[in-house]
Amino acid sequence: xxxxxxxxxxxxxxxxxxxxxxxxxxxxxxxxxxxxxxxxxxxxxxxxxxxxxxxxxxxxxxxxxxxxxxxxxxxxxxxxxxxxxxxxxxxxxxxxxxxxxxxxxxxxxxxxxxxxxxxxxxxxxxxxxxxxxxxxxxxxxxxxxxxxxxxxxxxxxxxxxxxxxxxxxxxxxxxxxxxxxxxxxxxxxxxxxxxxxxxxxxxxxxxxxxxxxxxxxxxxxxxxxxxxxxxxxxxxxxxxxxxxxxxxxxxxxxxxxxxxxxxxxxxxxxxxxxxxxxxxxxxxxxxxxxxxxxxxxxxxxxxxxxxxxxxxxxxxxxxxxxxxxxxxxxxxxxxxxxxxxx
Length: 342
Prior knowledge:
The structure is a single chain. By secondary structure, the chain is an all-alpha fold. It has a domain at 112-300: MetI-like (MetI-like fold), CATH 1.10.3720.10. The chain has 13 helices and 2 strands; from the N terminus they run H-H-H-H-H-H-H-H-E-E-H-H-H-H-H. The protein has a two-stranded antiparallel ribbon. A hairpin with a 2-residue loop joins strand 1 (188-190) and strand 2. Helix 6 packs parallel to helix 13 (304-332), helix 11 runs parallel beside helix 12 (291-300) and helix 11 runs antiparallel to helix 13 (304-332).
């Protein structure tokens, strides 16, 4: 049994059994990671070419070019430029987009709701499909259904995501005509958030991209749930629960599944971040107006500030999802130490 910790009702994380030391450690790590990401983004920004070419064009005299370079501070030493960039980034200023002629952070945040809803829908599909199928494959490992599920999961891992999207469009949009093939559909605005989850047309447009994006992680998580459940079903405490007369369903869900979730939560934090990165392919296939499609446009039109802001934003989302996974893991099992050992 874990030791009782003093809990402060003023701190919701402490009320869940998450100590302040853990929160402080994760916050410090997040700051260091974001600092490293910002330095990498600045290095990428410098390696992608001269921004004056995009601002002024090629036919501007060299004297005017040199004057503007001095005004923008581009003739300063590299450490000075880096310090200035980090200072502006800490204030939320990551530059101005060449395409949209406004703050790159505003442009990325405007596209974030579409990508977030796509990843959220794909994550829900992965969760609600992989959990029951993985448990079934663990408790009935020799059944025909389990073998069929595992065989299909191998096929799912082998098929690229863009090919999955094209196949789904061919079947459900072209042949059957049930679902739209591109776009986000009708949306409604709630404050700063524009969502398609509250309209029937938006949900129809979301279904195929979400299924396509979930196909990246679904086969992996089915096998992860199966493997974690098989490990737990062979432990002594599960045998003890069975000997005491506990029902099969209680043994599977209450005793085995709770401990099997621990590695899944840790891996899930990383994989959700991967799905954010893989939205690039899915959004391109379905013309989904999210961050991935925006990044492709920025690369095509050489919008360097927008490219680097996208990298920073995706890095920040990776940090947030992994920190959240750590907090959930500690909540599931308070015996986990700050170093990750039990």
